[in-house]
Structures are given as C-alpha cells and as structure tokens.
Amino acid sequence: MTIVALVLLFSGFFFIVVAALGVIRFPDFYTRLHAAGKGDTLGIALFVLGLAVYNGFNFVSLKLLLIVLFVFLANPIGGHVLSRAAFRSGLKPWTKKGE
Amino acid sequence: MLVQGGISMIAKKNLAREAQLKQLIVLPLALFIFWIILTGSFTTKSLIIGLMAALIVSRLCSPILYLPAAHTPGKSYAAFDLPYLKLFFYLFWLLGELIKANIQVALIVLNPKMPISPQVVTFKKPLDHPVAQTLLAKSIILTPGTITMDVGDDIYTIHALTKDAALSLAPLEGEGEMPVRVGRLFNE
Amino acid sequence: MITDKLLLTFLIALIVIIFLMLFRVLKGPTVFDRLNGLGVIGTDTIVVLILLGFLEKRVNMYVDIAISYGILGFISLVVIAKYFEGKGDVKP
After folding, report:
1. So where are chain B's domains?
2. Would residue A97 count as lying in a domain?
3. Under an 8 A CB cutoff, do C59 and A44 touch?
4. Do A23 and C40 touch (CB under 8 A)?
5. Is C34:C84 a contact under the CB 8 Å cutoff?
6. Which long-range contacts (CB under 8 A, 24 or more apart) does B134-140 make?
7. Residue C52, domain extent
8. Is the CB of A83 less than 8 angstroms away from the CB of B149?
9. Over 60: is that where the pLDDT of A52 sits?
10. Is residue A95 part of a domain?
11. pTM score, whole prediction
C-alpha cells in the first residue's frame, strides 16, 4: 500500500511541476492554457489520490476522493471559460514564424 | 422567477414520465450522499436534517434543471436524465486520454527546443442534448494537444498544439474519434 | 516509508511553485495570463492545505477548508472570466 501511495504522490508531483514549468515557458496564452488545463488536473488528482491511499479507509479519505472528483470536473471548465473569454476579446494565437 | 417557473411547467409536460422520475430521484440522492460524507455522522438528527435540506435544495433548483433542446423547438431535456452506465465507461476512457495528453505535454515542456506549431481548426458536430455539447467541449480540453476556444451554432473552434493533434480531432475527411463517441453516448 | 519529512519536502516545493506562478501573475502580458496563473495557484493551494493538515495531525479540519477553498476559487475564476469576456485588454 505504501508503494502505491509513493508512486501516486511522485507521479502527481511530477505533473504539477510540469504544469508550472509549462505556464512559465510557453510563448502565449493559449499554449499556457494547455499546460495548466491538463497538467494541473491530472497532477492534483494523482497527488490527492496518493494522500487518500496513505491515509487509509475512513471519512477523510472519502472527502479526499470528493476533492479528486471536483478537480476532475471543475478544472477543465475553468480553462474553457478563460479561453472563451480571451477568444471573444480578440486575442490572436501565437504562431511559429514562417507559417 | 415567475417567468422561469412558467417555462419549466411547459417543459415538464413534454417530458417522458421516466425522465421526470429520474430527475426527481438523482439530485436529492446525490446531495444526501454529499451531506453524509461532509458531516461524517450517522445520528438520526443529522440524517433527518440532511434529508430535508437535500429535498428543499433540489426543489428550489428544479426550474433551472430543464434544459431547452438545441435544435428541436419546444423540446426540453432533464439535466439529470443521463445514461449513467455509459457515462461511467466513457470517463475511464477519458482518463486514459488524459494520461496520454499529460505525457505529451511533459515531453514538449521538457524539450529545450519546444517543438510546437499552434493552429486553430474548426469542426461541426450537431448535438441536440445540451449536456452532450458541454461534455464534448470539456472532453476536448482533456485530450492530447487540444483546447476548446469557442462553441456556438454546432461549430467548435479548437486550438491545437501540434498538427497531429489537430488532425486527430478534425480529420480532413469524416469525423474524429471523440465527437463520434460523445454522439454514440447520447444516441445521436 | 512516508514520513513527515517527505510531506514537508513536498509542501516546500509546492510553495516554491506557487511563487513561480506569482511571477507569471505579475508579468502578464494580458489579463487572461494573470487569471490563468491565479487559477493554478488556487488549485495548488488545495494540496498545500491538505499537506498542512497531515503535518499538524488535524486532517479532519483542513480537508473541509480545502474543499470550500477549491469551490470558492473555481466560482470566483468563472465569475471574473465572465466579466472580462469580450472586453479584456489583449494588447501586450
């Protein structure tokens, strides 16, 4: 059980770090949203799942699972609301030079 | 409030009894389970308060839970009348796609040269059920290399990170895998 | 295997990540970039709160705080994004 929790914790943390690096490194808003929308959803879901496994089976773990479900449902919606607001404000996506 | 209530009364008439019943059961049940998890106690007092709160909240919400259909005029759908079993398997498939998407983003972010060529594509997928439209727009964000920019009049505007991602969702001929799957989920 | 030390390391690393996101919030260039950074900070804070609960041995309380923080953060992000829809300043 500890091994499972450790694997979940470390993989989740890896994806959270990747999401943060992506938000820093990508060239424009839409590409940054790729990193934030996907990386954060999976990273936090895995990390909190790892904490739930570590905690064992009780009401706190159920609440942690509730957080996983909430993040899985709400994070993509937040991303889409932002991208739609930007698109309707007329923000042009960045393209590679020469294309 | 009055106008909304009037619309929902008309909408209710056009719905099948089964759909209405499902709508009446699912939301209070979900709220009640949520209450039990949050309070964490099984005393009679707390259970009775939770049941009453769940019933009152779902009754107050009922006017906004009948959604007008996108294409058929006069028809409406109950928001909680969904194919739950199919939805469950679909979510597992979506989870697999999400893991694939994350590995792809990780490879791009950790690559010093950053091999991206962003582009905007559009595709058309007429769906009647409003929940199906929402599900498709939400799923696109979680699949490899694509995010939804805008949805309107059946046209989905997609921002893709690479050319392959754009082609996988909106191929030159036919439809991508995800719109077909969502359509099958709602029998459209 | 999972000790308080490991959880503390995760906690400090997450706080460093939150400061990195703060850099994105301050730098911009558009208002939507700032909002995106704020959203990431909000979701990361959920994890920070839960980890704090594990370290203080009072997960019971901190999990409730984390749930309400997550819901509030999501709702405020949606409301602010709706407000800026179609009238955000997109010049860098």
Report:
1. 2-78, 113-185
2. no
3. no
4. yes
5. no
6. B135/B182, B135/B185, B136/B178, B136/B179, B136/B182, B137/A80, B138/A76, B138/A77, B138/A80, B139/B94, B139/B97, B139/B178, B139/B182, B140/B169, B140/B178
7. 4-84
8. yes
9. yes
10. no
11. 0.85
- In this model, does residue A69 exceed pLDDT 50? yes
Query: Which residues of chain B fall short of a pLDDT of 70?
Result: 1-16, 173-174, 188
Pick from B98, B137, B161: CB nearest A42:
B98
ipTM of this predicted structure: 0.85
Count up the domains in chain C and report the number.
Answer: 1
Per-residue confidence band for C88, with pLDDT thresholds at 50, 70 and 90: low
> Is residue C92 predicted with pLDDT exceeding 70?
no
Domain membership of residue A94 (yes or no) is no
By percentage, how much of chain A surpasses pLDDT 70?
96
β B155-160/B119-124 pair status? antiparallel
What's the structural domain count of chain A?
A: 1
In this predicted model, what pLDDT tens digit does every residue of C55-76 receive, in sequence order? 988 888 899 999 999 999 999 9
* Residue A64 within any structural domain of the chain: yes
The subunits that touch chain B, with at least 3 C-beta pairs less than 8 Å apart, are A
Name chain A contacts of C66, Cβ cutoff 8 Å.
67
pLDDT, position B16:
67
Domain B113-185 in CATH 3.30.1370: yes
CA–CA distance, C92 with C90 (Å, rounded to integer):
6
* Helix or strand run (H / E) with residue B156: strand B155-160
pLDDT at C16: 92
